[in-house]
Amino acid sequence: MNYSSGLVLIETPGNKSSLVFVSTVGVVSQAVLDIVLLVNLDVLGELLGLAGIAANVIVIRVFVLEGFKDGVNISLVSLALSDLGALITLQLYNVMVNPWLAEADLPFLPLEVQSLYAFYPHNYFSRVRGFVTAFVTLERCLCVAWPLKVKQVLTNRVSIACNASIYLIMVLNVSPNYIMTYCEWKFVKSRNRTLYGILYRPNKDLVFSYTYFVTDFFIPFFAFFIVLFCTIVIVITLRSKALWRKSFSTAGEATGKGIPGKERKVMLMISAVSVIFIVCFIPFCAILTARALVPGMGINGTYWNLVLLVGSVAFFMETVNCSISIVVYFKMSSKFRARILEMFTWVFGSLDEKC
């Protein structure tokens, strides 16, 4: 094992906390961790995140122009809004956890302040994204099982209500964090000055011990397994329907009982989005599982630097997940592709006229 140093929150009398530099034991050195954090978060994450923000603004614009006659457009706009929120807050988080910023002479403690202003809001949008993905995947899965009944039940109003409910309910996911923590000016002995940082209310450990399992373990895994199960059902059903149509077409008989071409394209597109979500969520699954099973993966534990390293990879994968949807829509939806080309043709045409 390598010996390294790191910034750690230490509780002080009066229920206050301060960042101090202490020596810790870990399997990843601080030098290696700093390099990985800079590359994954502050270089690759920032560049891709900025592109993803622009991409999601375009996605929202396109679906709004297409209208909401098809209920799936409502969920895709909701998904793009959660992606946009997750990327904006993640951009701020990436800047605040920069190792160089922590050493700068600032009037606040970046590693503390980022919790309330970046990390917790990002968690909110990330959980919303997970459940919106689960909802739209479940909706397509039900369309496969009961196509006629589902269309009568899952109307546009129901889709709006379900998506709005996800945004409202997920507020409860971050409420304990904001109830038990707050930011205020405090005296930091290690800096010998008053800085703006985080403070905790009494009994925070008791509250967090109960909420951790629900907010940081059960909720993300629940959404993940819904997406995984429904995606498997959709893929298997599409494959079986394709084989069924092929067998009837070979026999020269009608194939009208199969899934309509438009519906099949939508299911394939949603399946692609869901598969990307599943793949990109795997690093977070590894962290959540490991922290629940291995004591040394807690804050300042033996493997804490390893958790931070894998966490930077997980955040980068989440940035990919929130940014790549526009590519899937462009490749798999002819309407979306036509609308995008129309928008850019209009923009470049206007520029040519001005020139």
From TrEMBL:
TM helices/strands, residue ranges: 20-41, 47-65, 160-179, 217-238, 266-294, 306-330
Entry's Gene Ontology molecular function annotations: G protein-coupled receptor activity
Compartments reported by the entry: Membrane
Record membrane topology: Multi-pass membrane protein
Pfam family, one: 7tm_1
Domain G-protein coupled receptors family 1 profile span(s) in chain numbering: 55-329
GO cellular component, one term: membrane
Chief place where the protein resides: membrane
InterPro entries listed in its UniProt record: GPCR_Rhodpsn, GPCR_Rhodpsn_7TM
This protein's UniProt keywords: G-protein coupled receptor, Membrane, Receptor, Transducer, Transmembrane, Transmembrane helix
Protein name: Platelet-activating factor receptor
Annotated source species: Biomphalaria pfeifferi
